[in-house]
């Protein structure tokens, strides 16, 4: 009896083991999700197309953009449903410094997307081919490619399509790339509809651990909000009780910086200090002497034109027809320039270095920076002012850190909004009316 029971238990155990191994050996692997397939790049991003359409439609309508009716929430939602695209979920974008970029989106019905491809073929020369037993569509002239699979569509534009497609096809379930994991876990800009995360090597070389950007807009301007987090502390902070120049409607370009950099001077091994030193050497700028002399205030302002008297030598003939040189004056129009810099006892050392390098030249009692007009110099304590007008502009209190720059008639505005020990929050404002008119961002 005992033997029969033992035999039965052995048979039951063997059967259980066989069934267990069968499930392991023959079960179908769980297919990867769309986020498992996402390739990494210098810049990666998420975008909610429908919410962006809601946010930007007022701007497009206000500026009477021709395609505004094709970018509404309702139109895009309808097109998505027609061709099987799930635009109610985020799409994912990725791009590299070299210009190669791509996007991936969810599909609700893979069979519907062929209708979109057939429609596109009426306007664009599209061919198809196979890679690793997977079909894809392409336009060689434009270097554009499209591949779709169960639950996803992948678009790419650039020179490395097959290498990137290999990453998409070879993905494993729960195999989200570490860069996307880190990006999607960030708390910054959680409620924004377009968020960009940077893996750019040039930012990493500055010791920046995290760089993120988010979109915002209204009817008149486009705003790009930025967030930078440094691995090591920021060795500068906002400066209080600073002096600057007032801005006006006629201001075309302005740099207004007020920072406490005393700690930065003590940490010359800091990655940002090192990189700015390298940039200075590249352009022949004496960065070491500048940091030694600078006490944190820098303001440059350009706007409008000024009348100034210029002395010149004219050759004339006297009564006996002999040539003689006569000193005369004439009024000329020059761009209005003013520059302010606060410096300590090493200020003159820095200016002498600029003159030896030819960046600053002295002509009589006035000075010229490279191709600037002649500038007068006024020194008041630690403040050095260079200006083109008859008198130095009035100084006003300021704690701003911002740049206004006009390029081809479009005025851009960037500001550092706040600083913490490791973080920088900033924003870039771009007026859209002139951009839409010119069809160019810069």
Q: Segments where pLDDT lies below 50 for 5+ residues?
A: none
Distance between the termini: 92 Å
What would the principal axes of the Cα set say about the shape?
elongated
Strand content: 35-45%
Gyration radius (Cα, Å) is: 32 Å
Number of helices: 13
What do the pLDDT scores average to? 87
Largest sheet: 19 strands, antiparallel
Helix content: 25-40%
Structural class of the helix and strand makeup? Answer: alpha+beta
Oligomer: single chain
Structural overview:
With 442 residues, the chain is α+β, with helices and mostly antiparallel strands. The protein is 27% helix and 38% strand. It contains 13 helices and 23 strands. It has helices at 2-26, 34-37, 49-62, 73-82, 113-120, 161-169, 178-184, 201-204, 262-265, 271-282, 287-293, 347-356, 432-438, and strands spanning 43-47, 91-95, 101-106, 127-131, 134-139, 144-149, 152-157, 194-198, 208-217, 221-230, 237-238, 242-244, 253-260, 294-317, 323-343, 360-363, 366-369, 376-380, 383-387, 396-398, 402-407, 410-419, 423-431. The strands form 3 sheets. It has a 19-stranded antiparallel beta sheet that branches. Strand 4 and strand 5 (134-139) form a beta hairpin. Helix 3 crosses helix 4 and helix 11 packs antiparallel against helix 12. The longest helix has 25 residues, at 2-26. It starts with a helix and ends with a helix. The mean pLDDT is 87.
């Amino acid at each position: 009896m005992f033997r029969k029971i033992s035999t039965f238990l052995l048979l039951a155990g063997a059967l259980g083991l066989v069934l267990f191994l069968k499930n392991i050996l023959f079960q179908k692997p769980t297919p990867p999700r769309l986020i498992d397939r996402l390739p990494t790049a210098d810049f990666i991003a998420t975008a909610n197309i429908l919410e962006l359409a809601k946010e930007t439609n007022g701007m497009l309508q206000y500026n009477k953009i021709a395609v505004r009716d094709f970018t509404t929430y309702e139109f895009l939602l309808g097109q998505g449903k027609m061709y099987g695209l799930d635009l109610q979920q985020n799409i994912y974008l990725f791009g590299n410094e070299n210009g190669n970029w791509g996007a991936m989106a969810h599909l609700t019905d893979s069979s519907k997307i062929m209708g979109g491809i057939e429609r596109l073929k009426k306007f664009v020369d599209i061919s198809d081919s196979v890679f690793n037993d997977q079909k894809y569509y392409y336009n060689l002239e434009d270097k554009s490619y499209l591949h779709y699979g169960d639950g996803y569509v992948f678009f790419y534009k650039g020179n490395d399509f097959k290498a990137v497609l290999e990453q998409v096809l070879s993905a494993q379930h729960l195999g989200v790339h570490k860069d996307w994991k880190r990006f999607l876990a960030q708390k910054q800009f959680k409620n924004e509809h377009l968020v960009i995360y940077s893996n750019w090597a040039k930012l990493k070389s500055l010791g920046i651990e995290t760089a993120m950007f988010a979109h915002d807009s209204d009817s008149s301007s486009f705003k790009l909000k930025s967030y930078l987090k440094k691995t090591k502390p920021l060795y500068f902070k906002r400066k209080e009780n600073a002096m600057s120049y007032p801005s006006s409607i006629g201001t075309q370009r302005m740099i207004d910086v007020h920072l406490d950099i005393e700690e930065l001077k003590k940490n010359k091994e800091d990655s940002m200090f090192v990189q700015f030193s390298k940039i200075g050497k590249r352009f022949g700028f004496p960065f070491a002497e500048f940091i030694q002399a600078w006490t944190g205030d820098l303001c440059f302002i350009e706007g409008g034109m000024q009348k100034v008297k210029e002395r010149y030598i004219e050759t004339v003939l006297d009564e006996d027809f002999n040539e003689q040189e006569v000193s005369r004056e004439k009024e000329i129009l020059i761009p209005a320039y003013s520059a302010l810099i606060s410096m300590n006892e090493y200020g003159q050392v820095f200016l002498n270095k600029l003159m030896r390098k030819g960046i600053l030249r002295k002509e009589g009692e006035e000075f010229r920076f490279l191709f600037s007009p002649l500038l007068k110099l006024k020194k008041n304590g630690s403040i050095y002012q260079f200006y083109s007008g008859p008198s130095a502009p009035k100084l006003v209190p300021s704690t701003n850190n911002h740049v206004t720059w006009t390029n081809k008639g479009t005025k851009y505005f960037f500001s550092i909004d706040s600083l913490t020990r490791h973080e920088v929050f900033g924003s870039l404002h771009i007026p859209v009316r002139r951009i839409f008119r010119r069809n160019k961002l810069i």
